[in-house]
Amino acid sequence: MIIETSSNCNSRENQAASLSEDELRSLSTSGFVALSAISTTAEVAEIRRIFADLVARRVGEKEGRLFDNMESETRPDGRRSIQLTNPSKYQTWLLDTLYVRNATRIAHQVLSPKSSLTFDFVLLKPAGVGAGTPWHQDEAYLDPKFDHSTLTFWMPLQDVASSDGCMAYLPGSHLRGVLEHRSVHGDRHAHAFECATAVPQEELVVCPLPAGGCAIHGQRTLHTSTNNTSSVDRYAYILTFGIAPVLSKNPRKAPWLEQRRSKESFFRLLFRKVQRIRSSATSMYRVYLKRRLNVISGNHS
Ligand SMILES: O=C(O)CCC(=O)C(=O)O
User: Fold this and answer.
1) Was domain 3-254 assigned CATH 2.60.120.620?
2) How far, in Å, is the centroid of ligand 1 from the Cα of 209?
């Protein structure tokens, strides 16, 4: 059965920024929670205007921050899922928004008062052709040598339902550990990963939201988004908060990351990592550096 969450969407008329007991329970039992408002109509309209302008001017393209995250050699029909990484670098006002303030307060409540914004990005799924994001866990993108603790906020900049590229979740999946992933379309050059385990469609929960609403999920919650078949471009502004990762006592294996790494140049890899996690522990970078130097010198240990 596909359950729509609109009736569970908790209203936040005054955009007060902490989760209720029910919302906290939903996050810990289901791995996600939907809020009907985290920003204001005026703020959402301004953020949308800024993103439309940045994308139209192809800001960030040369630096590799603007790209189609689903494009691959087998599916070269790009511009169906356009990602702009760290838009707040180009428009610092984004960091002063009510959205970021509210999300920060919620992250402090849920993760730790020491948590901070580590990464922001926009995903544009163009009208009529926008490709849904494949099922994945966010932790599949993170370095398996470290223990991570992150929380992601997903705010649509227009109303979204199944036909507009809304989010869908598999409740309880955050308790299953990090699952096997692979490159989308079997192409290691593609940015996106997909979960290699089949997701029971009858258990997924689709999450329609009004503009300025918010879906919040943890790093292991399996999630996807639907195709945008509507006549309106779908924008979502996504914030990831985290605490500094710590070297894991039980490091995971993530062959999908290794396979992609082996195809990338050292400098491109390092640039991407620095882009993705601005405020990670310096120890992480020491490990990246050591690993790549080993690869270059032929020592693959
Ligand atoms: O916007 C989407 O299509 C998916 C976003 C996503 O995967 C995320 O926020 O972690």
Assistant:
1) yes
2) 14
